[in-house]
Amino acid sequence: MDMKIRFGTDGWRGKIADEYTFHNLRRCAQGFANYLLAEGHAGKSVVIGYDKRFHSENFGAAAAEVLAANGFNVFLTQDATPTPVISYAVVAKKAVGAINITASHNPPVDNGFKVRDEFGGAIAPDGLAKIEAAIPDDESGIKTMALDEAIQQGLVTMFDAAEDYIPHLKKLIDLEPIKQAGLTVLVDAMWGNGAGWFPRLLEGGTTKVIEVHAVRNPIFPEMYRPEPIPPNVDAGLRATLEHNADVMIVTDGDADRVGMGDENGVFVDQLRVYGLLAYYFLEVRGDRGPIVKTLSTTKMLNKLGELYGVDVYETGVGFKYVAPKFLETNALLGGEESGGYAFRGNVPERDGILGGLYLLDMMVRLNKKPTELLELLFDKVGAHYYDRIDTLFKGDREDKVALILAANPETIGGLKVTGLNTTDGYQFGLEDGGWMLIRFSGTEPKIRVYCETTHADKVQAILADGLKIAGIE
Q: Which domain holds residue 411?
C-alpha cells in the first residue's frame, strides 16, 4: 500500500520528487474523480489549471489524463493561470469543480493539489474528507489515458480562462478612472501567476504599471517563498521607492492573495488591508452586506460592522470555512489573515487581482495615497497593530496542546486575558479588545503565533508570551 495522502487547509501539498510525485498526483486526481462520480456528476465538466512552479504544467496534464479517463469533459488551461481566474472558469464553463496544481505561497521545493466546488470556491471540510477517503491505495485503482488521445476524443479542451474572466471583472469594477489617474503602480508578481495582469488591465491611460519578479523562476529569488509578507516583499518595497511609485500591489505565487506597500516603501499588513477594503465598500461605495472573517484576522471589521450596521461572522482559519459562510450569508466580503479576500458578485474565492484593483480604485476615488487611507480608517476604528511569528516544531502536537491548555495565563504582554476561544487554535482575548492566537499550520509542521492590539508597544511582548505558552522559548 502507498503512503496515505492527507488533505490540509486547501487540499494536498508536498515536496516535489519526494511525496509529491506523478504517481501520487494521479492518485489524488482519481480520488477527486471518484468523489465527483459518487456525487452524481458523471460525464460533466471539470476545469484544471496550474501555476508556474517546477513541472506544474506537466502535473496538470497528468491530472487531466485521469479525469478524462473517468469520462469527464476537461477544460485544461493553456498557460499558467491565477487561481481566481481558474475558479471563475468553473462558473463560466458550468463545471462541477476544478483541480488547481499549485502550492500557492509554499517554499519552492513544494507543489500542491487544490480542489474547488461548482461555485469555484473551496470545498467544505466534509467534502475534503470524502475526497481523501476516495483516493486509491495504489496504482491499480487509477484510470488514465494519453493527453493527445483525450484531446482527439474531445474529452480535453485547451482554453484561455482570461477570455471569460476579464469581461466578468469589468462588470465588477470600472477600470477607466484607474487608467486615467496618472498613478505609478509598482506590482510585485513574486515570480508567479499574477505577472502581466495589471499591465494588461490598466494599459491605455496615464497610469503607469511597473512590474518586478514578473517572469517564471521556480526558485523564487529575493524571497524565501512567494508569500506577500515581509521579508518576501522587501525587494518589491525597495523597488517602490526606486521608481517613486504611489503604491505597491503584490500578489502571491498563484495570485489569490494580495499585499500592499505604501508610497514610502512601508508594508501595509494584511489586517489593515482587510480593514481598508471593508471601509472602501461600506463608506466609499456605500454597499451593505455581511462580512465574513476568520478568527485570525482583524477586530477592526467588528467595529466597522457596528458603525455601518452590518453583521460580521467569524469562522475557523481557511477558505474551506470562509467560502461556505460567504455563500450562506450572501456576504459583501470574506477574508482571512493571510491576505486572501473574496468579494460579492465574484466567486467565493480569494482574488488577489480584483483585490488589488479595488485598492487602486479606493485611492483614485478618494484621491489619497495609502498612508492617508490608513489615517481615514484609523479615524473610524482607532489604530490597530499586528504581527505574527511562525516557528517549526518537532515532537507530538498533542503535547503542545496540553501545554497551551494548562498555561491559563492571567495576562499576556501585560494585558489582562479576558477569555479563550478554541474554534480553531487557541485564541486568548485581551482587555483592549485585541487577541493572541496560537495555531498549528494546516500545511506545514509549524506553530503560528499571531496578535492584534491597540498598543503598538505591546506587540512583541504579546508574541513572546505566546511562544512561552506554546512551549517555545
A: 385-469
